[in-house]
Write a structure and sequence with these properties.
The protein is an alpha/beta fold and about 475 residues long. The strands form four sheets. It has a seven-stranded mixed β-sheet with strand order 6-7-8-9-13-10-14, covered by helices on one side. The protein has a six-stranded mixed β-sheet with strand order 5-3-1-15-16-17. α10 links the parallel β7 and β8. The N and C termini lie far apart (about 80 Å).
């Protein structure tokens, strides 16, 4: 029976680049007449590899990204608008994150994308920066212009007699750019604030400015199908799945934090989002999902987040649960930098570091790149082990075995590793009875070493007590000798 992962892979292959399939297969380029299946015979054939079954202890690697937007054309490029733009634009002939991921796509099994997918909502921001021109019409487009503007006059409006909302054109460009990856690699996504509506929170704009199909995460809901039903949920916003030795959980930190906590963009005055579940539903679901993890198959509960790590409500909603259920690692985005944190809980750094910490390990992966470029570090924090606000990049996470996982941060410009770290975490209750001989041997050796150390300690205690007793018996009558000392 196909795994949940296989079903998702099938969707990812078919969904991305859907506009391109419609253009070439259904429309005659010369006169706009629909010709069903006209070019189907010339479409490329793609293949993909199914996911490891739960309980398979074979090492595997995934690509990890967040805050990845459109590259070039109407996205991040070598230029910015004269009225604003990216802090860090692309350099001349600089390789971007998508190109780097394509070049190294044989080194990972699938892609985890933790919020902010394509940045189609940046059309308005780019307009106000005069990215498309500095006339008043282009820098302050009306709602109607956003709805009918076509990005490629020669390709879209003339060739196909078809118009698209501008933000939709940005998302279609992004899907086309991602297709070399998503046609053969599953693409597991999580909602971020830039999937919410069309205005990106710009002052003077809001839900009323957007079309109905551009509000309340409609883009995310209609473009992706995550394994929510299979993990006892009815929408894309929180879900879980197993791959090999790992249990993955994706959460929504933009809405539905539960217990009366106000999420970052849940029903603010100009942008109404969610809720997408009942009262406390996401938090209750998370606890039940953790309780149901079969640790004989998937010892590593691994979590993804997409909200600012300093957002108090986010921390209050999930951090204690992460700690109670021994989360190994969680990744997030939103802030446009890369940071590798020390394992930390409730503001306290775990003294064990990456050597069997009790607290979860956190990675911030917001530097994949989009129109705004990168953020700039303003302070040095003790909980940050390594930070980079200069390079666009993406992550590569390897599940080595039941006790080790390794992370590499890849510089998109040259596909070289900028940072590398390995987490060691014991999960003794997680070892399956049918483990490999190598794992069993390593476990046995470790247990033997502990028993030997305990035996030596016991022998030392016995020797100390015997010496004390002998000293007491040898002492003269009427003279009291302190325990452990001789005359």
């Amino acid at each position: 029976m196909p795994s949940l992962f296989v079903k998702l892979a099938t969707f990812a292959t078919l969904a991305v680049g859907a506009l391109g399939a419609y253009v070439e297969d259904q429309v005659d380029a010369g006169n706009g007449v629909h010709v069903p299946g006209a070019y189907c015979a010339y479409r490329p054939t793609y293949s993909f590899k199914t996911a490891l079954a739960a309980g398979d202890w074979t090492p595997f690697t995934i690509a990890t990204i967040a805050d990845l937007g459109l590259m070039g054309h109407d996205g991040l490029s070598t230029t910015v608008g004269p009225l604003g733009g990216a802090f860090r634009a692309l350099g001349p002939n600089e390789t971007n994150t998508i190109q780097s991921m394509i070049a190294l796509r044989d080194t990972y099994e699938f892609v985890g994308h933790y919020g902010d997918i394509g940045y189609a909502d940046y059309f308005l921001k780019e307009s106000t920066h005069a990215y498309f021109g500095n006339s008043s019409e282009l820098t302050n487009p009306s709602r109607e212009q956003v709805a009918i503007r076509c990005p490629w006059a020669s390709f879209c409006c003339v060739r196909l007699s078809l118009t698209l909302p501008k933000d939709e054109s940005l998302s279609e460009q992004f899907f086309d750019q991602m297709q070399p990856i998503t046609a053969s690699k599953p693409w597991m996504v999580t909602p971020g604030n830039h999937e919410a509506n069309c205005d990106n929170g710009l002052k003077g704009y809001g839900d009323a400015y957007c079309l109905i199909g551009q509000t309340n995460f409609t883009f995310y809901i209609e473009h992706f199908r995550m394994p929510s039903q299979q993990s006892h949920k009815t929408n894309n916003f929180w879900y879980s799945y197993d791959v090999g030795m790992a249990h993955f959980i994706s959460l929504d930190t933009e809405t539905d934090l539960g217990h009366g906590l106000v999420a970052p963009i849940a029903n603010i005055s100009t942008n109404h989002n969610g809720p997408f579940g009942g009262l406390n539903e996401q938090v209750d679901w998370l606890v039940e999902d953790l309780k149901s993890v079969d640790r004989t198959k998937t010892p590593r509960p691994w979590y993804t987040q997409v909200s600012p790590p300093t957002w108090p409500a986010w921390q209050e909603a999930f951090e204690q649960i992460f700690y109670d259920y021994e989360v190994d690692l969680y990744m997030n985005g939103h802030v446009h930098t890369y940071e590798r944190m020390h394992p930390i809980f409730n503001g306290t750094i775990d003294p064990n570091g990456l050597n069997n910490p009790r607290a979860p390990w956190m990675l911030l992966l917001g530097a994949a790149g989009h129109y705004d470029g990168l953020d700039v570090f303003s302070t040095n924090q003790s909980y940050t082990a390594f930070g980079d606000d200069e390079h666009f990049g993406w992550g590569r996470l390897t599940f080595d075995n039941a006790t080790h996982l390794s992370f590499e941060y890849i510089n998109s410009a040259d596909s070289q590793v900028l940072d590398r770290a390995t987490l060691y975490k014991e999960h003794k209750s997680s070892f399956p009875a049918e483990s490999s001989a190598e794992t069993l041997l390593a476990t046995a050796v470790e247990e033997l070493e502990k028993l030997q150390a305990e035996l030596k300690l016991a022998e030392a205690n016995v020797a100390t007590r015997k010496a004390a007793v002998d000293a007491e018996h040898a002492a003269p009558v009427g003279v009291r000798v302190p325990r452990g000392r001789t005359l």
